[in-house]
Amino acid sequence: MKKESIDNHAVTIISEGVVLDGKLTSKGNIRIDGIVKGDVNAGGNITIGQRGEINGEVIASAIIIGGKVNGLVNAKERVTLESSSILKGDLITKILIIEEGAIFDGKSSMNGKDNSNSLILGKMDGK
Protein backbone atom coordinates (compact mmCIF):
# COMPACT_ATOMS: atom_id res chain seq x y z
CA MET A 1 0.00 0.00 0.00
CA LYS A 2 1.37 3.42 -0.99
CA LYS A 3 1.94 5.81 1.90
CA GLU A 4 0.32 9.21 1.30
CA SER A 5 2.66 12.18 1.67
CA ILE A 6 1.14 15.33 3.13
CA ASP A 7 2.88 18.67 2.61
CA ASN A 8 2.07 20.79 5.67
CA HIS A 9 3.71 23.77 3.93
CA ALA A 10 1.18 23.74 1.07
CA VAL A 11 -1.04 26.83 0.96
CA THR A 12 -4.66 26.84 -0.11
CA ILE A 13 -5.62 30.30 -1.44
CA ILE A 14 -9.13 31.70 -1.69
CA SER A 15 -8.53 34.69 -3.97
CA GLU A 16 -10.27 38.07 -3.89
CA GLY A 17 -13.57 37.84 -5.75
CA VAL A 18 -14.13 34.20 -4.76
CA VAL A 19 -17.09 33.35 -2.51
CA LEU A 20 -17.03 29.92 -0.86
CA ASP A 21 -20.27 28.76 0.77
CA GLY A 22 -19.44 25.80 3.00
CA LYS A 23 -16.80 24.34 5.29
CA LEU A 24 -13.11 24.64 4.30
CA THR A 25 -10.61 22.17 5.77
CA SER A 26 -6.89 21.77 5.02
CA LYS A 27 -4.00 19.88 6.62
CA GLY A 28 -1.69 22.70 5.52
CA ASN A 29 -1.95 26.50 5.51
CA ILE A 30 -4.81 28.65 4.21
CA ARG A 31 -4.88 32.23 2.92
CA ILE A 32 -8.26 33.94 2.55
CA ASP A 33 -8.55 37.04 0.35
CA GLY A 34 -12.13 36.28 -0.72
CA ILE A 35 -15.23 35.45 1.32
CA VAL A 36 -15.92 32.19 3.15
CA LYS A 37 -19.43 31.58 4.48
CA GLY A 38 -18.71 28.66 6.79
CA ASP A 39 -16.12 27.22 9.13
CA VAL A 40 -12.40 27.22 8.23
CA ASN A 41 -10.09 24.62 9.82
CA ALA A 42 -6.37 24.27 9.08
CA GLY A 43 -3.72 21.95 10.47
CA GLY A 44 -1.24 24.75 9.79
CA ASN A 45 -1.82 28.50 9.82
CA ILE A 46 -4.60 30.72 8.52
CA THR A 47 -4.04 34.22 7.13
CA ILE A 48 -7.00 36.45 6.36
CA GLY A 49 -5.98 39.30 4.05
CA GLN A 50 -7.30 42.86 4.34
CA ARG A 51 -10.11 42.11 1.85
CA GLY A 52 -10.76 38.62 3.25
CA GLU A 53 -13.87 37.75 5.22
CA ILE A 54 -14.98 34.67 7.15
CA ASN A 55 -18.45 34.14 8.58
CA GLY A 56 -17.93 31.07 10.75
CA GLU A 57 -15.55 29.38 13.16
CA VAL A 58 -11.81 29.66 12.45
CA ILE A 59 -9.42 27.00 13.83
CA ALA A 60 -5.65 26.71 13.22
CA SER A 61 -2.23 26.68 14.89
CA ALA A 62 -1.68 30.40 14.26
CA ILE A 63 -4.14 32.91 12.82
CA ILE A 64 -3.43 36.33 11.33
CA ILE A 65 -6.47 38.51 10.73
CA GLY A 66 -6.18 41.52 8.44
CA GLY A 67 -9.80 41.46 7.23
CA LYS A 68 -13.14 40.57 8.85
CA VAL A 69 -14.19 37.58 10.93
CA ASN A 70 -17.65 36.99 12.37
CA GLY A 71 -17.38 33.93 14.61
CA LEU A 72 -15.23 32.06 17.08
CA VAL A 73 -11.45 32.18 16.53
CA ASN A 74 -9.45 29.33 18.09
CA ALA A 75 -5.66 29.13 17.66
CA LYS A 76 -3.40 26.61 19.38
CA GLU A 77 -0.48 29.05 19.45
CA ARG A 78 -1.12 32.68 18.45
CA VAL A 79 -3.67 35.14 17.07
CA THR A 80 -2.61 38.43 15.48
CA LEU A 81 -5.20 41.14 14.90
CA GLU A 82 -3.68 43.53 12.38
CA SER A 83 -4.62 47.23 12.37
CA SER A 84 -7.15 46.70 9.55
CA SER A 85 -8.90 43.74 11.22
CA ILE A 86 -12.45 43.46 12.52
CA LEU A 87 -13.23 40.49 14.76
CA LYS A 88 -16.78 40.03 16.04
CA GLY A 89 -16.70 36.88 18.11
CA ASP A 90 -14.88 35.14 20.90
CA LEU A 91 -11.20 34.28 20.76
CA ILE A 92 -9.20 31.40 22.31
CA THR A 93 -5.39 31.28 22.09
CA LYS A 94 -2.13 31.20 24.06
CA ILE A 95 -0.65 34.42 22.63
CA LEU A 96 -2.72 37.40 21.50
CA ILE A 97 -1.25 40.32 19.53
CA ILE A 98 -3.52 43.30 18.83
CA GLU A 99 -2.24 46.13 16.66
CA GLU A 100 -3.49 49.67 17.16
CA GLY A 101 -6.66 50.26 15.13
CA ALA A 102 -7.88 46.67 15.26
CA ILE A 103 -11.54 46.21 16.22
CA PHE A 104 -12.34 43.30 18.56
CA ASP A 105 -15.89 42.81 19.84
CA GLY A 106 -16.01 39.65 21.92
CA LYS A 107 -14.38 37.78 24.78
CA SER A 108 -10.86 36.41 24.86
CA SER A 109 -9.53 33.38 26.68
CA MET A 110 -5.79 32.84 27.02
CA ASN A 111 -5.46 29.09 27.50
CA GLY A 112 -2.36 26.98 28.07
CA LYS A 113 -0.10 26.26 31.01
CA ASP A 114 2.20 29.28 30.64
CA ASN A 115 0.60 32.51 29.49
CA SER A 116 3.50 34.67 30.72
CA ASN A 117 4.70 35.12 27.13
CA SER A 118 1.39 36.67 26.06
CA LEU A 119 1.74 40.05 24.42
CA ILE A 120 -0.81 42.73 23.72
CA LEU A 121 0.30 45.61 21.52
CA GLY A 122 -1.61 48.80 20.88
CA LYS A 123 -5.16 49.36 21.99
CA MET A 124 -8.54 47.94 21.11
CA ASP A 125 -11.12 50.08 19.37
CA GLY A 126 -14.51 49.06 20.74
CA LYS A 127 -16.60 50.60 17.95
Walkthrough of the structure:
0% of the residues lie in helices and 50% in strands. With 127 residues, the protein is mostly beta strands. It has one domain (11-104).
Task: Please supply descriptive tags for the structure shown above.
globular; six-stranded parallel beta sheet; disordered N terminus; mainly beta; 127 residues; disordered C terminus; ten-stranded parallel beta sheet
Produce the secondary structure layout.
Elements: E1 11-14, E2 19-21, E3 24-26, E4 29-32, E5 35-37, E6 40-42, E7 45-48, E8 53-55, E9 58-65, E10 68-70, E11 73-81, E12 86-88, E13 91-93, E14 95-98, E15 103-105, E16 108-110
Parallel strand pairs: 1-4, 2-5, 3-6, 4-7, 5-8, 6-9, 7-9, 8-10, 9-11, 10-12, 11-13, 11-14, 12-15, 13-16
